[in-house]
Amino acid sequence: MSDAKFFAKGKAAELRLELTSDKKDKNYVRRKTALKRIVANMTMNNNEMIQLFPDVLDCIKLDSLEIKKMCFLYLINYCRLKPDLANKALPVLLDDLRDRSPLIRALSLRTVSCIPLPAFNEALVDPLGRLLRDPDPYVRKTAAFGVAKLWASDAPLVEKSGLIEGVNQLLVDSNPTVVSAGLAALTDITDKSEGMKLAIGYQDASKLVQILGDCNEWSQTYILSALMAYTPQDPAEALLMAERLSPRLQHSNASVVLGTIRVILYLTHYISDDSAIQGLVKRFGPPLVTLLSKPHEIQYVALRNCFLILQQYPQILQNDIKVFFCKYNDPIYIKVTKLEIIFLLASEDNIKEILRELREYASEIDVQFVRKAVRAIGKLAIKINTAARDCIDTLLDLVATRVSYIVQEATVVIKNIFRKYPNKYESIISVLCKNLDSLDEPEAKAAMVWIIGQYADRIENSDELLDEFLFTFKEETIEVQLALLTATVKLFIQRPAKGQELVLQVLKWSTEETDNPDLRDRGYMYWRLLSSASGNADITRQVVMSEKPAISVESDKLDVRTLEELSLNIGSLSSIYLKPVSQIFKGTKARHLEQSPALRRSDSNFESPGFYPNYTAANYFSTNGGDLLSE
Fold first, then answer.
1. For residues 524, 525, 526 and 529, what is the CA-based torsion angle, rounded to 10 degrees?
2. pTM, whole model, 2 decimals?
3. Tell me: the pLDDT tens digits for 36-50?
């Protein structure tokens, strides 16, 4: 039977006959086929399969690893719906924990630890303690993860059973894979515990770095994650540790590369030599560029982490900007992230090359991407003063195409350029005024209205232009209505004769014919201001036409505290969302730089929550290599 046929919707009665048939079934072929169909239907949420619980439990006793795997999968999936029946499988599972085959012991252990029922939790404690010392490394590794799962299900039971001490003993195991599994379990437990934290000394950290080369990718990832619990006490040892980790940057696995970057970035906070830090971070460039040749999903992770790293060290990829130019077959999420990185890397030296590239992007058929490209051109004009004229010329070329969405995006960014460079590029206003018919989006309308109001004294027919917008005032969004109200008041202040009639009409609409409190409040504010200042127009001008706050691209950067925490979570979901881990996963501890004599002064200004109430892990366990878990 082909795999596709297993996914045909099955009836419980029909499958029960296959499982309980008295016909000769050599090597359990019929039962295996029936179980495959049951598992396939289970994955398709065919709830009729729940009726087969007793029949599947009968198959667990059969001496076949393949059958046991499918039965255990069924048991894990439906145990919460039928807890009483699931408990009947417990004796068989406990017997399998003593099987001669390490595969069956490990499989049974994994199954029991995945079933969050009280009877299973209590029955697992004693076998887990024994299996943590099992002769087979695969079983010991599975047991380590079993302790972490049991802790997630019933933490008090694990804490009073001494199982964490057993996991701690695995950290001096002769098998690197077992060591990494023990570290992964302890990291998972301490990350979610209010009373414990992982602390690794220099000698233990050195041993972990030494065994990295003997581990597979998963194990290396676990070890690299655990190394974040190592706090250097001396700048020299931090530098030595970073140097020893550097070869991992050449690894083919993206997770290992990003994990290595995370640890090295963490260690740089404890290195006093700035030139050594620059030398270390420059090594990030080639591996990050290599990751951009991976599949799109990995590329996206790499790009998001590049964006984060470049916020701190833009120089590491300053000469590799071309690798971030978009390809025709890049998905939109890759293209948008590349645009963000291109903007970060833009400088006076490469701005012309970047503008040519962005001009090409603005001619593509993907509307969302074109909008982002146009907006990037405008932001570059604000970022690089000497390139503002070139950016504006590029925007005007795009406006000349008269493509609606391009004109609208250009209008929005030109408004920001006017704010950045007041009284400098007003000559282009006439070009924008010729394209008013292309504006149908609220943001673009509001931007154009702001320009007309701000420069009403320099636009000859500013009153007529505003009157066109006011024709649909009551149908506009609140964003546009607020912009029209302010622009009309500005027109009246700068050209009283032409603005008097319009301002009275808009103030009447805003105060008497609207339900929006923001619009009404602003309308009353302007009305009272104009009435009370009738004898002194300068007061009104100072309030309405006051100097605007400086506009800068610096506001797009992450604040220092957030950037520090995110850099300690490179390679995780936190670095993808650019949000602290505590905002993504409830109950997860925020990472921070631990206080140390080696911590750089600029970093030591940040408060570090070092107090953990209740109890400390040091009360429970220590190893021959020193306390790995401590206060």
1. 120
2. 0.83
3. 999 999 988 888 889
